[in-house]
Specification:
The protein is 41% helix and 14% strand. Strands 16-15-14-5-2-1-18-17 form an 8-stranded parallel sheet. Strands 19-20-21-26-23-24 form a 6-stranded antiparallel sheet, covered by helices on one side. The longest helix has 25 residues.
Length: 792
């Protein structure tokens, strides 16, 4: 873990993510800073700033790491943004992308352009992970119509000294072209070959980000490459413009630990990494970072609002519907496709490193693929975490005994040289296999209960008990108190509020199962897993317009690859998806029933939303608020969750709340803004530490999730949160009745910062006990502080 002096330096109390792009430049973002400060935000967390592919709407496709994107305003805009943020007392955190660069537009990326022009003699050749020994760099951009792209070569032209294919331009090496030369001959003289787009997954000779051909991996393990790609980023730190960094896709790096140690040596600020931790997994102790970007907390917090008793009914429903429910088997099949098909080019490259010893190349590929799908974590970090590696080898050998000799050879080589090329490539590829197989495929196939199918989630674990959540919160406070926590990000499959509403279904699984059995035959989607996903999505995101709904379902179907896919689209199948909203509305009785069901779970969904938000914002770690989620947000997977946010629309309710308005919990979402503001301001002002689980007493005790924390200047717990769990079953049981929550003793009276009401001590023994029927009569959550006045 990070040393105490480092983690405490510049650690924000909270962050607020802003997604920059054409709709929100740095200059425009300056206008939101005062609003965020008033809301209680402590740090503004920006999406990537470096120059990206022209027209980029997210910034993860960097083309020039040496400068701030001019489209976002350039270096001057960053300086102005940082100056204004710091003047308000806000710190600045920036997302950085060390793993890859975009090569979609070769003429926009000067480093890649030079590599294509000069091959291995390019000064930038060492920057990219290219196997030059295999021949020219393959560029999979040509259309093929079944002829492997040969016909498309006839579309090549030469213009202005460049090779041109429609809107793409490629360099010509010096001396390879004179006037009148045949274009095809000129093409063959280059250091690259334009080939069919279909050849990317199996034949590329440069490493990619996942299976995205236009994102080429960068060799930041090379000190010179690190210096070149990070000079601008480190300048931001030296000049005081940026106070913290979020490192994107750290598992894709050849040596994550070495990279992070080098980064920490040169950047004196808060660092967190995008790292998916499996249940029970911890970050390597040698990493000098504050923690992760919080998907582990998301899984735990959201899980506490799910009723585990729903599992048998929803499992039966899925099976009856024709949907697979064996999570492990779904995972293995999906990962197998990722390793054997989508990442075959990476598997081939690894297999070539396997000790020969008479091994057939095809068997080596099979062994590598089997090993890659067998990790129960995203990747191992040898020589640390040797147990993770050993479990994967054993699992692969158990599944494929016929491959044991090859697997033993791989294991022996890797253990003898954990920093060698074979070890490095297996480890950095396993994370891609898990992400592409589990997150991007299995989560769209095993749709039993999609509230659990989240990045970092575990669909096999049906929710989180309150006791387990407390255990995880205690561990987080003890070992990673400055890690980020989150509920929604730009990468989540669905927003926190969609998941919160879906969690309500776990309280009424029988009602949902009966409804689905009525609805589906009348307006089915064309594949069982998609059908089950579609109805849950409709309820979770209701009301949702046709365009957003069908765009999401098309993406889900193509990711699942059960009836269509990104590379082999089935027009008839996809037309059935596009027609689904119309077919629903055409059956007026069905549509009315779906609407009534969605409306019946909306209010309890709000209760879950507020509860999980309070737990995240005031629990251990540094909570992040994703842009726009201070109001109800029913976004789905990207690009839906990256839509522009209307910050001006949030100004009016914020001003009313500042003036003393305590909004009702209703459709406008102002109650969530009130909660977020209250929690963020309390966190910024009180700087809570420690963690004390609290236990309610009485007939509805299991419906309360509560904890207390010590605050700045207090001698004991002086801040407490209580949230409502499983609100429907609570109401069915008669409500809170005489359930009470004993609060920690100490000087000063407790007051609810949300309502302004005091918690009156018992007159007999002086103990303070919150009667939950009273404390939670206005909001399903309470934020209690001792010796404090309500947040004004």
């Amino acid at each position: 873990m990070m040393s105490a002096d480092r983690t405490s330096h510049g650690t924000p109390a909270s962050t607020y993510r802003l997604q920059l792009g054409p709709d929100l430049t740095l200059d425009e973002a300056i206008g939101s800073l005062d609003h965020l400060h008033r809301m209680g935000v402590d740090a503004v967390y920006l999406s990537p700033l470096l120059a990206a592919t022209p027209g980029s709407d997210h910034g993860y496709d960097v083309v020039d790491p040496t400068r701030v994107s001019e489209a976002l305003g350039g270096s001057a805009a960053l300086e102005a943004f940082a100056e204004r943020a710091h003047a308000l007392g806000l710190t600045v955190v920036v997302d950085i992308v060390p793993n890859h660069m975009s090569v979609a537009r070769p003429d926009a990326n000067p480093w890649w352009w030079d590599v294509l022009a000069n091959g291995r003699d390019s000064v930038y050749a060492r920057c990219f992970d290219i196997d030059f020994d295999s021949g020219p760099v393959l560029i999979p951009v040509l259309g093929d119509d079944g002829d492997d792209g040969r016909a498309a070569l006839g579309e090549l032209t030469i213009a202005d000294g460049h090779l041109v294919y429609f809107d793409k331009r490629f360099p010509l090496a010096e001396g390879t072209h004179t006037h009148g030369d045949d274009v095809a001959d000129v093409h063959l003289r280059q250091h690259y070959r334009l080939v069919s787009w279909r050849r990317g997954d199996g034949e590329l000779n440069y490493r990619r980000f996942f299976d995205v051909d236009h994102l080429a991996a960068v060799r930041v393990e090379d000190p010179g490459v690190f210096d070149a790609t990070h000079a601008e980023i480190l300048r931001w730190g030296r000049e005081g413009l940026v106070d913290g960094l979020r490192v994107d896709h750290v598992d894709g790096l050849s040596d994550p630990g070495g990279y992070l140690r080098r980064l920490a040596e040169h950047f004196d600020g808060w660092i967190v990494v995008e790292k998916i931790l499996a249940p029970g997994e911890s970050l390597p102790a040698s990493w000098p970072v504050a923690g992760t970007t919080g998907y582990d907390a998301l899984r735990q917090v959201c899980g506490a609002f799910v009723d585990p008793g729903a599992e048998p009914i929803l499992t039966t429903l899925a099976r009856d519907h024709g949907v697979a429910t064996d999570v492990a088997e779904i995972d293995i099949r999906a990962r197998g496709h990722a390793a054997g098909e989508l990442l075959h080019t990476e598997v081939r490259r690894i297999a070539a490193l396997v000790p020969p010893e008479g091994t057939d190349p095809r068997r080596a590929e099979e062994a590598v693929a089997e090993l890659l799908v067998s990790f129960d974590v995203y990747r191992s970090y040898l020589p640390e975490g040797e147990d993770d590696w050993a479990r994967a080898v054993r699992a692969a050998a158990d599944r494929r005994p016929d491959l044991q000799p090859v697997l033993k050879g791989i294991d022996r080589t890797v253990r003898s040289d954990p920093h060698g090329e074979l070890a490095r490539r297996v480890q950095q590829t396993s994370g891609m296999v898990v992400a592409m197989g589990t997150e991007n495929t299995a989560f769209y196939r095993g749709t039993r209960f999609v509230a659990l199918n989240e990045v970092g989630g575990d669909p096999a674990a049906f929710g989180t008990s309150v006791a387990d959540l407390h255990t995880e919160q205690l561990r987080r406070e003890a070992t990673e108190p400055h890690t980020m926590t989150t509920l929604s990000t730009h990468d989540t499959k669905r927003s926190e509020d969609v998941r919160a509403r879906l969690a309500v279904l776990s309280e009424i699984p029988g009602d949902f199962a009966d409804a689905l059995r009525r609805w589906s035959p009348r307006a089915p989607l064309p594949e069982p897993a998609l059908d089950l996903l579609g109805w849950q999505t409709l309820l979770g995101a209701w009301p949702i317009d046709d365009e957003r709904l069908t765009a999401y379902l098309l993406k889900a179907a193509r990711e699942a690859r059960l009836g269509t896919s990104w590379t082999d689209q089935d027009p008839e199948f996809e037309d059935r998806i596009r027609s689904w909203p119309d077919r629903l509305r055409a059956d007026t009785d069905l549509y009315a029933e779906v609407r009534a069901f969605a409306e019946s779970i909306t209010a309890p969904g709000w209760s879950n939303s507020l509860g999980q938000k309070a737990v995240q914002l005031l629990g251990p770690g540094v909570p992040d608020v994703y842009q726009g989620t201070e109001l109800w947000d029913l976004s789905l997977v990207d690009p839906d969750n990256r839509r522009p946010v209307d910050h001006e629309a949030r100004a009016e309710p914020l001003a009313r709340i500042e003036a003393g308005w305590r909004p009702r919990v209703d459709a406008d979402g102002a109650a969530k803004l009130h909660l977020v503001r209250t929690c963020l301001r309390a966190r910024r002002d009180l700087r809570p530490t420690g963690y004390l689980p609290l236990s309610a007493e009485g007939p509805a005790a299991d419906h309360a999730l509560a904890f207390a924390r010590t605050t700045r200047g207090s001698r004991g717990p002086a801040l407490a949160v209580v949230a409502t769990r499983l609100p429907l079953t609570l109401a069915d049981a008669g409500g809170w009745a005489d359930t009470v929550l004993p609060l920690p003793s100490g000087p000063g009276d407790w007051v609810d910062l949300l309502t302004g009401r005091p918690i009156v001590p018992d007159r007999v023994d002086g103990l303070t006990t919150a009667h939950l029927a009273e404390v939670l009569d206005r909001y399903p959550v309470a934020v209690l502080a001792r010796g404090r006045t309500p947040v004004g």
